[in-house]
Amino acid sequence: LPFSRDALTSAYHVKPKAFLKFMLSGLSDIVLTHDWPLGVWQSGNSAQLQRHKPFLKNDMASGALGSPLAADAFKHLRPRYWFSLHLHTRFTAVVKHQEREYKKVRATPEASKNTNEIQFSMDEDGFDESEVSEDKTASPTHTNFLALDKCLPGKRFIEHMTIKNRAGNPSERSMSLFYDARALAIHKVVEDFAALLQFSSLNIKDFREPQRLESLLQELSKDVDRIEKDYCNLEIPTNFKKIAPDIHEQSCALQYWPNNQTQEICQKIGIPEPNLLDK
Question: Where is the composition biased (Acidic residues) (predicted)?
Fold first, then answer.
């Protein structure tokens, strides 16, 4: 520190609390991240990526392209679909989880296609939907990865997909919105843990130690499972309010506008309200 201009564009900013909540989220159909997971390009058409973004060649060759923490989450969560942005190019891949250990090898991008490293199944236009597990109750054996381009004329920045939902969600029988019990429990457990001295002694390097991270996740997950059962009546009340001035009102300084629904749910489960300066 301070960051140089080049370092600033390549740094990944991840809040420890947000990362823990992410890792505790459990079986997921869809994950959205700004950053690409480290090494996910190895499961796709790397030659195509290099043609579209030639300045990525060095990072691809050194194994440095992507976020390490996003890669850890990718391996841990194994969602059916993972969508990212950041590199401003459309890119698809199908990652087979049982064979997807990303290797930081110093090799050309073309060499990384070695099937002993990572298996992939895709073409230049998209991933093969038939490769994705349809078992909604088990962790998928594959994850479809899709990144899109910038929202500009002539760019491939939007796509339509049909994704089967899971049966049994109360929202299927109602027009209302509902909180997710596990998500509320995760917020409660992680916020309580963040208030302890043990949390303040952690740094981001601790999250890159698999044994320490796994031990922490197991401990926190037990608390999540325990208090998840305590939450009922998860329907979100229709008490929407206008919380910020519109364009027709007098302009004011840029600031954080507290949301009444956020305040109410934080009070309900006993967690602090969002703090924009929080680490």
Answer: 122-132
In terms of Cα–Cα distance, which of 105, 83, 85, 102 is closest to 93?
83
- Element holding 227 (H helix, E strand): helix 210-228
Measured between alpha carbons, how far is 221 from 182 in angstroms, rounded to an integer? 10
Query: Which residues neighbour 197 within 8 Å (Cβ) at sequence distance 6 or greater?
Result: none
Sign of CA dihedral 80, 163, 12, 102: positive
Q: In the structure, what pLDDT confidence band is assigned to residue 278 with cuts at 50, 70 and 90?
A: low
Q: What is the pLDDT of residues 70-129, one digit of tens each?
A: 999 999 899 999 999 889 999 999 999 875 444 443 333 443 443 333 333 334 455 554
**So what's the pLDDT on residue 206?**
80
Task: Tell me: pLDDT of 177 over 70.
Answer: yes
Residue 267 CA to chain centroid, in angstroms? 26
**Predicted confidence (pLDDT) at residue 36 exceeds the cutoff of 60:** yes
Nearest to 19 by CA among 143, 219, 205, 145: 205
φ, ψ (nearest 5 deg) of residue 69: -70, -35
Nearest to 67 by CA among 271, 207, 223, 233: 207
Question: What does the block give as tokens for 166?
Answer: 């899971």
166 Rama class: left (phi>0) / alpha (psi -120 to 50) / beta: beta
Neighbours of 9 (CB within 10 A): 8
- CA dist 150 and 161 (Å) reads 18
* Cα–Cα distance, 160 to 16 (Å, whole number): 33
Its pTM stands at: 0.74
**Phi, psi (degrees; rounded to nearest 5) at 141:** -85, -15
